[in-house]
Amino acid sequence: MKQEYLERLKGLYPNLYLNLVSIDCRDGWYPLIERLSAKLEAELIALPKVFRDYHAAQVKQKFGTLRFYMYRYPSDEFKQHIVDAEEESATICEFCGASAVLHSSGRWEVICDLCALKRAARYGQVRNRLEALIKYKTHLSEEEWEQLMKETGQHDSKTRF
Ligand SMILES: [Zn+2]
User: Is residue 161 part of a domain?
Assistant: First the structure.
């Protein structure tokens, strides 16, 4: 995840993210992590100050879904917020935040159809890229198509299909 997102989280939720140096998942889960963080920080702030020594230890993607580890957990409710968010991550595209399902072919990941097509269009084998581009085009407005062409360098005649 972009470092600026972590910096934003550290600013908003200073108790929770006191020691964390990175979040090892893609940007599509930022809103989910932010919602979770707001709940957790509120629970931490409600604790007596001497008991506030609970911090996020590791936040990452594992086997396709979110994992959010604390050094320790102040309560079962606190842990339940985390379990709920981890489960919800199986329905949110890790790349863009759209609705998606957990795929297990090749690697575990939560990716929406458009992001999968976009990735295939950008990085797949040439034949797959053409197929993906053709399929992808039917999902897009003219503007979105132009944007993708720009992003994937298709305006550059050297790489035009
Ligand atoms: Zn997506």
Answer: yes
Contacts of 49 (CB under 8 A, 6+ apart): none
Cβ(69)–Cβ(25) below 8 Å: no
- Asked if 46 and 77 sit in the same domain, the reply is yes
139 CA → ligand 1 middle, Å? 13
Please give the residue range of the domain that contains residue 32: 3-91
Assign 14 a pLDDT band (cuts: 50, 70, 90): very high
Please state, in angstroms and rounded to a whole number, the distance separating the CA atoms of residues 87 and 65: 8
Query: Measured in angstroms, how far is the CA atom of residue 15 from the centroid of ligand 1?
Result: 31
* Digit-coded pLDDT (tens) for 105-135: 778 999 998 888 888 877 766 666 777 777 7
Number of domains, the chain: 2
104 lies in some domain: no
Distance 73 CA to ligand 1 centre (A): 32
Q: What separation in Å is there between the alpha carbon of 95 and the centre of ligand 1?
A: 5
pTM: 0.81
CA of 96 to the centre of ligand 1 (A): 4
CA 72 to chain centre: 24
Residue that wins the pLDDT comparison between 159 and 54: 54
Q: How far is the CA of 93 from the centre of ligand 1 (A)?
A: 5
